[in-house]
Specification:
single chain, 445 residues, D-Maltodextrin-Binding Protein, domain 2, 2 domains, nine-stranded mixed sheet, two-stranded antiparallel ribbon, 42% helix, globular
Length: 445
């Protein structure tokens, strides 16, 4: 009977041992001023911590910040041909880039992206406008620099915006007549001109000889005069014709070809060919660039070309004069470049117009034009050329210049004029026969 009592005592003792152990641990923890970590024994009931969340603070929360309007940034995309690239390492390029930077400084919310596009060839600037407009309108440019011939096509296709009601700058007095003609199509403002180009005579100025002012002086000089005789537009011949006739056929309903004036031009060609001033090999040239290259290669002593070709070339001892006319009357065809706006939304269109006005402001444009090799479109810009030897020539030519004929007239008359000119210079027909063939081609038998 004693064994069960002993077992009972052991059983009671075993029940007391865990409690004694815990009490000992507590006494030890208090004596060391540190409590043991019981987290591993008893589960925690605290909330799960969210990464990145800040601990709660008793600091009073600030009052709400007043609402400040946020100005949305706007991007303007500008298309230019290679000769106007602001990234080019030229003085003109640097001036253009600085002007764009100045515009951005005044409008910090505006970003400008300039993209360079070729004028001709695959994916030229006009074709790029057409393709982008139909396939990717979101990346269309907001403004684009175009020559007059492409402005006509783009305007008629609805690719550029008429600026009537958008700008007053084109109605200012400080524009040459030819520049105003550049800017308008069918009495609508197609853009704002910024660069002028005249058809001129290039000649060597180191010989001491005066450039020939008229046809008689050209023939008497016995020196070769190059021009693109096979130009499908017939521009040189039309220039000489209009210097006599005053008006082009088709310019108005009553305007017809003045046969006497055109016969005078063909007869001049015949005399010049007989004097070896206009040899038959000129009929190989279709462009002003080819005639200019002939001058550069010293195949010819003079050349009829565009002022921009002459002024941007590195040609020693070369100067600029007026094209010789029958009576030494200052006359020239003009071409040029225009800033145009591409349709988008009203706010972007207005800011694009403001950028164009900023880029055509006289004080900037007058300086840029001299460096870029393009003639002034504003009379105030002529003073910038006063130190150059042909300043007097420009004083005479710029007010007298007229816009070159439009695409439709050149397409109609150009090829038949070319055929007549080449037949005369090749000494195949008399001027009267060439004129009769031309009239029959235009008017019918």
């Amino acid at each position: 009977m004693k064994k069960p009592m002993i077992y009972s005592k052991y059983k009671t003792l075993l029940r007391l041992i865990p409690g004694l152990i815990i009490m000992g641990l507590l006494v030890f923890g208090i004596s060391s001023c540190n409590f043991p970590d019981l987290g591993g024994i008893f589960p925690s009931r605290s909330a799960t911590e969210i990464p990145g969340a800040a601990a709660a603070s008793s600091t009073p929360r600030p009052s709400a910040t007043p609402n400040i309007p946020v100005v949305q940034s706007r991007r303007l995309i500008v298309w230019v041909p290679p000769q106007f690239d602001p990234a080019a390492a030229t003085t003109a390029g640097n001036l253009f880039l600085s002007r764009l930077d100045e515009f951005i400084d005044r409008r910090p919310q505006t970003e400008i992206q300039v993209r360079v596009k070729s004028i001709t060839g695959d994916f030229g600037i006009l074709e790029s406008l057409q393709v982008t407009d139909s396939a990717a309108p979101l990346i269309m440019p907001d403004l684009v620099a175009l020559p007059r011939s492409l402005v006509e096509q783009a305007f008629n296709a609805g690719l550029i915006l008429p600026l009537n009601g958008y700008t007053e700058s084109i109605v200012e007095n400080d524009w040459y007549d030819y520049a105003l003609e550049l800017a308008h199509i069918n009495d609508q403002i197609a853009g704002i001109p910024f660069a002028g180009d005249l058809m001129v005579l290039a000649y060597k100025d180191d010989t001491g000889e005066v450039p020939p002012p008229d046809w008689d002086a050209v023939i008497a000089g016995q020196t070769t005069l190059a021009f693109p005789a096979s130009d499908p537009r017939g521009l040189v011949t039309l220039t000489l014709y209009q210097s006599l006739a005053g008006e082009l056929p088709g310019a108005t309903e009553k305007a017809l070809i003045r046969e006497d004036a055109l016969l005078d031009v063909f007869s001049y060609y015949q005399e010049a060919q007989a004097a070896s001033v206009m040899p038959y090999w000129l009929t190989q040239f279709e462009t002003e660039e080819q005639a200019w290259q002939s001058y550069q290669d010293r195949q010819s002593t003079m050349a009829i070309t565009w002022s921009s070709i002459l002024l941007t070339a590195d040609s020693a001892n070369t100067s600029l004069a007026a094209m010789p006319t029958k009576e030494a009357k200052p006359f020239s065809y003009a071409d040029g470049w225009i800033w145009c706006v591409v349709p988008s939304n009203s706010e972007t269109e207005q800011e694009a117009v403001e950028l164009i006005e900023f880029l055509t402001e006289s004080s900037y444009l007058n300086t840029w034009g001299v460096e870029a090799g393009y003639l002034p479109v504003r009379p105030s810009g002529l003073d910038s050329w006063s130190e150059l030897p042909f300043y007097t020539t420009l004083q005479q030519l710029l007010p007298a210049a007229v816009l070159m004929p439009g695409n439709d007239l050149l397409d109609d008359l150009g090829p038949v004029i070319r055929d007549a000119v080449t037949s005369v210079l090749k000494d195949q027909v008399e001027p009267t026969v060439a004129l009769s063939a031309l009239l029959e081609e235009i008017q019918g038998p």
